[in-house]
Amino acid sequence: MSKNIILIDDNPTENIINEYLIRGANSNANISIIDNSNEAITSLTQTLFDPENQQKHLIVIDQQMPGMSGLEIIEELEELIDLDPGKVIIYFLTNDNSVRLQEKSKIIGSIKAILQKPLTPEMAAEILRSA
Q1: What pLDDT digit, counting tens, does each position of 82-98 carry?
Q2: Domain that holds residue 63
């Protein structure tokens, strides 16, 4: 069964590398790439909360992005995520290890982990095992 993974990062090079590493861990993964916060809000709202779409989604999101941070995006969608918490698993992949991000990750149940960049093959395998 293929896994649905949404990569959200404003850095195109990191998106390419992360997609490559995830495909190396599971070549059947269905990977979507989103490169800005506005598109992330729109796409996640449409994809994740479509009543016809009951699949589980893994979100790998960068914290530091222009416009809105990864945490601000998740906070914007928090009410919708809470409606069906088992449908979404969130991994932050970031260099930001702020106290606020750490505290919020304990409150929002869908946040599985905060991983430090860069993504490694081992981290990609861990992410895929969680679905």
Answers
A1: 767 778 899 999 988 78
A2: 4-129
